[in-house]
Amino acid sequence: MSSLSLAVRDSSTMLRRNLLHARRYPSLTLNLLLTPIVLLLLFVYIFGDAMSSVIGGGGPDRSAYLAYVVPGLLLMTIGSTVVGTAVSVSNDMTEGIIARFRTMAIHRPSVLIGHVLGSVLQSVMSVILVGVVAVAIGFRSVDATALEWLAAFGLLVLFATALTWIAVGMGLVSPNAEAASNNAMPLILLPLLSSAFTPVGSMPGWFRPIAEYQPFTPAIETLRGLLLGSEIGADGWLAVAWCLGLSVLGYFWSGAKFDRDAA
CA nearest 29: which of 39, 19, 17, 15? Predict the structure, then answer.
C-alpha cells in the first residue's frame, strides 16, 4: 500500500471514530450549539427593534436586524463547535489512547486529521441547524446568487478548518479537558467583540481596533455581503488571508506539539 493510500485509509478510520464519539456523547456539542441559538432568539426578539434603528437609522424593524445578525451567529456557531474539538483532543491525550495509537502501524498525522475532518463536518451541520432556525423566524437571502451561496459555503468550510486546527493545538497543550475548554473560550468570545451584533462604526473609538483587527470581523462582513448581496470590498481577501494563516499556524503548531509529545 502506498503512503497516500495508507494516509487516506487511516484518516478515514480516525474520522469514523470521532463521528462515533460525537454520536454517542452528543451533550457537549448540543450545549455548545445552544449558545448561538439562544443569542439569535435573544437579540432578535428582545433587542431587535432597538438595534435595527442603530443599524439602519430608521424605525424599528426586527427583520432588518435579523438579516444583519445571522451571518455573525453562523460564524459564532463554528467557534462554539470547535471548543468541543479541543476538549476531545485533550481527552485523547490524557486518557492514553494516543499512546496506544503510537504503538500501531498507522499514519501518525491521521489521528489529528481525523479530529479536524470530524470537527469540520460537525461545524457544517451545526451551521445548517442554526440556519434553519434563522429561516424559521424570518431570515431570507433573496439577493444572493447561486455563485454567492457557493462562495458563502466555501468561506464557512474554510473558516471551520482554520478554527479547528487552532482548537486542536489548544487541546494538545492543555493538561485536561477543563483546561482545554477554558483555553478555547476566545473562539466564543471573539465574535462578541466583532461586528456580529453591531457595526464597528458605532463602537467607541478606543474599542474599534479590537473589533477590526481580528479574524471574525472580516469573515462576518464577507459572509454578510455574500448572503445579503451587499458590497464586500477588501474584507473578502482579509477573511481568506486570516483563514489560510490560522490554518497553517494551527497545522504546524499541532504537528510540532504532537511529535514532541511522542519523543
Answer: 19
Gap between the Cα atoms of 172 and 217, Å rounded: 27
Average pLDDT, the chain: 85
Q: Which of 254, 253, 260, 262 is nearest to 104 (CA)?
A: 262
DSSP 44: H
Q: Could you report the per-residue pLDDT of 140-182, keeping only the tens digit for each?
A: 887 888 899 999 999 999 999 999 999 999 998 998 888 998 9
How far apart CA 112 and CA 255 sit, in angstroms, is: 8
Question: Is the pTM for the entire model greater than 0.90?
Answer: no
Q: Is 210 exposed, middle or buried (0-12, 13-18, 19+ CB in 10 A)?
A: middle
What does the block give as the cell for 42?
A: 435573544
pLDDT tens-digit series, residues 234-253: 999 999 999 999 999 999 99
Helices (H), the chain: 3-24, 27-45, 48-56, 62-95, 97-102, 110-136, 146-173, 177-183, 186-192, 208-212, 216-228, 235-262
